[in-house]
Every structure is written in C-alpha cells, then in structure tokens.
Specification:
421 residues; mainly alpha; Growth Hormone, Chain: A; disordered C terminus
Length: 421
C-alpha cells in the first residue's frame, strides 16, 4: 500500500495530544491539594483513576478495534476524553475530577491500542521502527510543553487586568478565580473535540492486522498468564510505569514541601525538564542499543536512576532541581527495553501479550497511591523511597531475562534470527 504522510502526521499529532493530556497531573498536585484541601493519599487517587483505566480498557480496546476499526475507536476515544475533560471543567470538584480522569484515561488507553497497527500500515512496514521512535519524540515534546502551558495559563490569568489576550480573557470568564489551573481542562476539552472532528473527516486506510498484532481470545490471554515469564514482564511494566509516575507526580509537591519551590513556576519547569530529558535519554538509548546488549544498558541506566533519585531526595535544593530531571533522563530506555525483551522472550501470541503488557500501565495508578499513603504516614520524602523497590525489580530484569532473540549489535557476528530492539 502507498504511504500516507497525512495519516502518519495525524498519528504523530495523536501521540502529542495523548502525552499532553496524560502527564499534566504532576505539576498540578500542589494546586490540587490546596484547592480541595486533600491529603497525599486522596490526591494520589487522581492518577489512580487515570491509570487504572489502562488496566481495565487495554484488552477490551484491542478487541473493539478488531471489531469496528481504528478510525471509529479513535473517534470514540477522543469523544470520551472530551466528555471527561468537559465534566470537570464545568463542575470542578474532587469527586468529579476522579470521574473525569477515569474517562480521559479510558480514551487514552483506547488510542494507545489503536494507533500502532495504523502507523505500520500508513507509514509502511519498512519505516515502522523509525516512525515509532518519531512518535515517542512527539510524545516527549508534549510532556515537556504541557507544564509550561500550565505555568503560562495560571500566571497570566492571575494578572486579572484584561491584558492577557482573547484566550486568557475567555478562560478567565469560564473558571473560578481561585482555581485558574482548571483552565487546562477547558483546553483539553477543546483539543479532544477538534481531534474528533479531524479524525471523523479523514479517510483512513484499511488495516489488515498481522498475526502477532491480533488481540486474541480470552482463552489465549489466560494461556499466556499461566506462563511465569509473562507474569514477570507484566510486573516489569507495572514497576516501570509506577516508577515514572511515582516520580513525575510527586516532584512538584516534594520541591514545595522540602525546598519551598513555587509549583507554578520552578516546580512546573522542573517537571518539564524531567520529560524533556527523558526524550533526550531515549535518543541516546537508541544509539547505545546498536553497540551494547540491551540488558547491560538496562542495568547501567537503572543503577544511575537509583543513584540520581537518592541524591535528589536527600540533597539540597539546587541538587534536587538538577537531579529530578536527570532521573527522567536515566529511566528513558526502560520502557522500550522491557517491551522488546518481553516480546522476544515469548515465541507466539504477541498481540495478546502486548495487551497484557499494556495492562501493566496500571502500575501508574497503584505506585503513586502507595507513595501518597506512605507520605501521609511518614512524610513524602520517606514515601518516595518506596520507588527503590520498583527500581530494584527493574534492575533484576537485566540479570534474569533470557530472550530468545537478542538486540543486534554493530560489529558482532550476526545470528540469522536476530532482530533489533
């Protein structure tokens, strides 16, 4: 089939919007706590509501995609996201926020499942690896920009002198004066609605799923779940996403609590650089994986993550402001390496396996909640030490994993069945 650059561009935009909506909770945590007078445990229920949707929806979304197609699933996903964002923007309360984030998380889970097979067809199979990496770069760019957009909105709306321009003045009239950060959810609602219209108007290519992309029946999933190796990699994804969100969601609150950092400026900027350096680290990781066994890369980067997180939690203000973004840099390779090791460790049913692995994104729901609960009991600094348990599990993967296929290394004699990570 002829490549469709327009569809590829639309998918890149989708990656951008997914990330823009997904990774904004962290910068908002101090505002959320102040606005609704919440404990750390209660505020941690918000990312829980978002990421538990991945655990609930990933496998059903794969089945739905096979039944009604990628286009309808994407339209439905953005429509659900629009409803979720609008509900909270219109009725701002803690309980409505929980419901809203579950809706938005459901939409994002559906999109994650639908766009990869579409990207393979629209971009061409031979370009799939390149386009996938490009998608992650767009994902990282949005995560870098969204905290900066938050800062721009709340700081300009606080001026309250009518000089903020049309958008700022419009949003100021829609949100309570004491809750300027809720303006982000009006932006999310508008973005989601625009995506519904755009995708609805575009003609999509027909996607014939390859055998290893098909979701498979429930019996196939149960068969895979009986394999210890599948469970080990499920918990690996659970641990990774839990670690990523457990850091990102608590950076701003940690900096405010222990170093008196303004969450709307320096706190948001620090989280922005966390995601920005994660993107840079992923680019470096791609190069390293051409020269070093992926398990060794995982061991090295995970060890560096543990050291950097330790000094960030125990060090001075200036150390923490540098250290937390560096944590993002070092965890950057974990997702792709864990996924590739998992798929290369199981011979069949890769589509069903992918669904099980994506369900592990629910770790982003559970781990920040545990950190928040421990933070209420012993202090946030102590609570964040829980992340060393998830990092220790990720570190162990480099020692016990035995993939059927290793990543191809430049200069090393090739095995005829090897492939790249």
């Amino acid at each position: 089939m002829k490549r469709s650059y327009f569809i590829v561009g639309l998918i890149m935009l989708t990656f951008f919007v997914i990330s823009f909506l997904t990774n904004i909770i962290g910068p908002l945590v101090p505002d959320i706590i102040e606005s609704f007078d919440l404990s750390l445990t209660l505020v941690a229920l918000l990312p829980f509501a978002f990421f538990i949707a991945y655990g609930v929806m990933s496998i059903p979304a794969g089945m739905l995609t096979e039944r009604i197609g990628e286009k309808r699933v994407m339209v439905l996903a953005f429509l659900i996201s629009f409803i979720g964002a609008l509900l909270f923007a219109w009725f701002p309360s803690y309980s409505m926020y929980v419901v809203s984030l579950f809706f938005i998380g459901t939409g994002m889970a559906m999109l994650q499942v639908a766009i990869n097979p579409l990207l393979r067809v629209a971009g061409g199979e031979q370009h799939f690896a390149f386009n996938s990496v490009m998608g992650q770069l767009f994902f990282g760019l949005a995560s870098f920009l969204s905290p900066l957009v938050y800062s721009y909105l709340v700081l300009n709306m606080a001026l309250d002198n009518g000089s903020g321009g049309f958008i700022i003045n419009l949003l100021s009239g829609l949100v309570p004066a004491e809750l300027p950060w809720i303006s982000l959810y009006w932006v999310f609602a508008i973005l989601s609605l625009i995506m519904v219209v755009v995708i609805g108007l575009v003609k999509f290519p027909t996607v014939e799923l390859q055998e290893d992309e098909k979701t498979g029946a429930i019996e196939t999933h149960l068969q895979l779940l009986k394999q210890p190796m599948v469970l080990l990699y499920f918990f690996a994804i659970f641990a990774y996403v839990g670690t990523e969100q457990g850091v990102a969601n608590w950076i701003s609150q940690f900096l405010q609590t222990y170093h008196d950092v303004d969450p709307q400026t320096t706190g948001a900027s620090t989280i922005s650089w966390f995601w920005g350096l994660m993107t840079a680290g992923a680019a470096l990781g791609l190069v390293l994986l051409k020269y070093v066994d992926s398990r060794k890369v995982l061991i090295g980067f995970t060890t560096a993550t543990m050291i950097t997180l330790l000094v960030s939690l125990l060090g001075s203000r200036s150390v923490a402001l540098i250290g937390f973004p560096m944590v993002g840099f070092f965890i950057s390779v974990m997702w792709s390496i864990i996924i590739s090791l998992a798929l290369n460790s199981v011979a069949t049913h890769h589509g069903s396996l992918s669904g099980i692995l994506v369900t592990g994104i629910a770790g982003g729901a559970v781990v920040p909640l545990i950190v928040g609960w421990l933070g209420d009991a012993f202090g946030l600094q102590a609570g964040m030490f829980f992340l060393f348990l998830t990092l220790a599990y990720i570190l162990s993967i480099g020692f016990w994993s035995k993939p059927l296929i290793n990543n191809e290394i430049i200069g090393k004699k090739k095995n005829p069945v090897q492939t790249t990570v």
